[in-house]
Amino acid sequence: MSERVLVQQLKSLPAGPVSVSGWVETVRDQKKVQFVVLRDETGAVQLVNPATRPSEEAGDQDATALALTETIGGLANGTFLTVHGELKHDDRVKLGGVEIKIGVLEIAAAANPETPIAADSGLDKRMDWRFIDLRQRRNNLIFRIQTTLEHAMRTYWVERDYIEIHSPKLMSTPAEGNAELFALEYFGDQTAYLAQSPQHFKQMAQAAGFGKVFEIGDVFRADPSFTSRHATEFTSIDAEISWIDSYEDVAAMQEELLAAAFRAVKEKHGDEIAALFDVEVVVPSLPFPRIPLAEAREIVKARGYDIPRTDGDLDPEGERQISAHVREAFGHQFVFITDYHPEIRPFYHMRDDETGLTKSYDLLFNGTEITTGAQREHRIDVLEAQALEKGLSLEGLAHYLDFFRFGVPPHGGFGMGLARVLMLMLGESSIREVTYLFRGPTRLAP
């Protein structure tokens, strides 16, 4: 028997013996011929078998052919199998211009005939059976895009001599207060907390003299939110750099990073994204527009929307409105909203001496916030004062504050939600669609 080949390789192979493996997507069992659409991780191919039906003159029939016809007729969607057969090139075959005449069919694992989800099943039902839901070509593509996106970002950073770190996800103290933190029993009578951000550990790398670091890893938020863009566990893309003069240095790095990542996705998957998602991937032009928060609020108000929040920030509809303005005025999908008030920012964001506003930004993409970035406060006395102002315990922050007692360069960075980027890039309505296995307040399985 020949070695297994992938479906995407069939077009380039000569006619002749071939072996493919995958799962059954559909079976058409006609009187004189049987068709099976077999899908693997790279695509789908049509398998064909001239049907041999039982007759009164059974002695004249090929028992092997009869058995094969019966086996194909009983195949359930989702059955995993291997087929050894003859590859034929035929432009009339809509599925890739090739088909395989079945010689030998080997079932690796038969599926139950009753599939628990259908094409019109709701999102929650599909999440219950996510491993079946992910077999769709469209869903398979999402995670190929994710792989390309992450690889492109890593390539950008590695080529610029960044160091990749893997920070711990168990913390001894609720670093930024107890809000949105999962607490769990640790050894002895200790309490540990799941990290809601690698923020403090990224900053430790600056104190360690690493200069430029990045991390792509899980973070946890004990946020009982049921919106389309929140999760209790998600993948965060983080970077931190030393010797900056302004948060603008961070923003400039991030927009270059995103342009490089989008370019890689467009080049590798653009046509398939257009076909399956009806979306054109646009590589963003540089620089991205920048709008101070106070000005953004005025623009939103002028568009006829009064932001109900009393803390001075934008709400989701405000984000959509300012993004609509940016599309109309600048023809851009991205916008940096800058100059946030300290009341709505963490204690470690540096503040401008003249305005008192933080040297920080949010990055919006297609109407939704995907990033918070900032220059950090590196002066220990100012940092302690800002922590106390926020009602935080210096004792609880002791390990973090120690970084700054022994010297830290001026630095800054950002954190960005991977699922949100994918959701907005592909025009999906929920991060659950672009998350391998979603975790939310009511979902811990599968």
How would you sum up this structure, described in words?
With 446 residues, this protein is α+β, with helices and mostly antiparallel strands. The protein folds into two domains: 7-109, Nucleic acid-binding proteins (OB fold (Dihydrolipoamide Acetyltransferase, E2P)); 130-434, 2-Layer Sandwich (BirA Bifunctional Protein, domain 2). 30% of the residues lie in helices and 25% in strands. The chain has helices at residues 63-73, 123-128, 130-133, 137-159, 199-207, 247-277, 293-302, 316-330, 380-389, 398-405, 418-426, and strands spanning 16-29, 33-40, 43-50, 80-89, 98-109, 163-164, 170-171, 183-185, 191-194, 212-220, 233-242, 290-292, 334-338, 360-365, 368-375, 411-417. Strands 6-10-11-16-15-14-13-12 form an eight-stranded mixed β-sheet, sandwiched between helices. Strands 1-2-3-5-4 form a five-stranded mixed β-barrel. It has a three-stranded antiparallel β-sheet with strand order 7-9-8, with no helix packed on it. β1 and β2 form a beta hairpin. α4 (137-159) runs antiparallel to α6. The longest helix is centred in the middle third of the chain and has 31 residues, at 247-277. The chain is elongated. 34% of the residues are buried. The mean pLDDT is 95.
Topology overview:
Layout: E1 16-29, E2 33-40, E3 43-50, H1 63-73, E4 80-89, E5 98-109, H2 123-128, H3 130-133, H4 137-159, E6 163-164, E7 170-171, E8 183-185, E9 191-194, H5 199-207, E10 212-220, E11 233-242, H6 247-277, E12 290-292, H7 293-302, H8 316-330, E13 334-338, E14 360-365, E15 368-375, H9 380-389, H10 398-405, E16 411-417, H11 418-426
Parallel strand pairs: 3-5, 6-10, 12-13
Antiparallel strand pairs: 1-2, 1-4, 2-3, 4-5, 7-9, 8-9, 10-11, 11-16, 13-14, 14-15, 15-16
Helix pairs in contact: 4-6, 7-8
